Amino acid sequence: MATDAHSGSSGTSPDDPVHVDGGAHLDDVVDEHDVVLVDFYADWCGPCQMLEPVLERLASETDAVIAKVDVDENQPLAGEYGVRGVPTLLLFAGGNQVEQHVGALPADRLRNMIDEYTE
Asked: How far apart are CA 16 and CA 37, in angstroms?
């Protein structure tokens, strides 16, 4: 049986993006997993919609957890992280925010960013 070298209290990362409902939920996700890529998005945002399948693939192919935060439903949380445009991607490693990017990034760049913190 293979073991996950990056197991948090939850053991493994989900194979689908996790939809975050509020700051406490995001804190829990970040605390429970080593690497979390958070996508602050809006349903009306074209680049966000283009990024969706990329993030779904990354969720199933990497050890990182992909978390999604709807900025329209979580405006205070978006404000707390200084989100001024969507999509905004935040990367957490070891419970700390280590990267922040505004705009849709290509799949290979996202994968490289995740791999930098999961190896």
From this structure: 12
